[in-house]
Amino acid sequence: MSANPTKIRRRGLMLVLSSPSGAGKTSIARKLLASDEQLVMSVSTTTRAPRPGEVPGRDYNFVDIESFQKMVEAGEMLEHAKVFDNFYGTPATPVREALAGGKDVLFDIDWQGTQQLRQAARSDLASIFILPPAVEELERRLKERAQDSDEVVKKRMAKAGDEMSHWPEYDYIVVNRNLDQSVAQVVAILTAERLRRERQTGLPDFVNGLRRQT
């Protein structure tokens, strides 16, 4: 599966996936990354402890609160937020370098981070909110993944309503009833966003070359 539409030089884009916990954005993100060489994951920095199986530098950059605050104060974060008593943020330099090189950067962040990205770089942003098909399904998925205690699951469910209220702030909405169908929908969105005229920076040279041949 590839969403690379053209070899004309272009500027990369920031593709944001947001959802309440358990709606499936991480599963969608993994399938996208596995199938598209032009898409790279933004590695967030966080103050929370690693979960089982997470690899520092691949899943997250794990730092203490003092180091995180220093990065924010130095203007090194594109966005940052506090979520469930932990801080999360996106280092700016790797993202800017990727965009300039024509790579697309995938973000798995919440609505607060998306708002900050929109303010910092609206023209580079395409945002998608992932909704569950039902609240009962959301709770089932949270319990089945067995990453959190019952207390944390309750907190996530309590917060889900507020998170879902921000859906109008996003460019696209995908209801994740079926994972493969949802991935296909996100691929279609990514393909269309890559074809936007303003992102294809090599179009003037390409069109001028065509005109010289006529």
Let me know the number of strands. Answer: 9
**What value does the Rg take, in angstroms?**
18 Å
| CATH superfamily (homologous) name | P-loop containing nucleotide triphosphate hydrolases
How does CATH name the architecture?
3-Layer(aba) Sandwich
General shape: globular
Strand order of the largest sheet: 2-7-1-8-9
Q: How big a fraction of the residues is strand?
A: 15-25%
Q: Output mean pLDDT.
A: 89
Tell me about the largest β-sheet: 5 strands, parallel
Topology as a string of helices (H) and strands (E):
EHEEEHEEHEHEHHEHH
Overall tally of domains: 1
* Structural class by sheet pairing and helices: alpha/beta
CA distance, first residue to last residue? 35 Å
Short descriptors:
214 residues; alpha/beta; Rossmann fold; five-stranded parallel β-sheet; 43% helix; 20% strand; disordered N terminus
Model description:
The chain has 214 residues and is an alpha/beta fold. The protein has a single domain, classed as Rossmann fold (3-Layer(aba) Sandwich). 43% of the residues lie in helices and 20% in strands. The chain is built from 8 helices and 9 strands. The chain has helices spanning 25-35, 65-73, 92-100, 111-121, 135-145, 150-164, 179-194, 203-212; strands at 14-18, 39-41, 44-46, 60-62, 77-83, 86-91, 104-108, 125-131, 172-175. It has a 5-stranded parallel β-sheet with strand order 2-7-1-8-9, with helices on both faces. A 4-stranded mixed β-sheet has the order 4-3-6-5. A hairpin with a 2-residue loop joins strand 5 and strand 6 (86-91). It is globular.
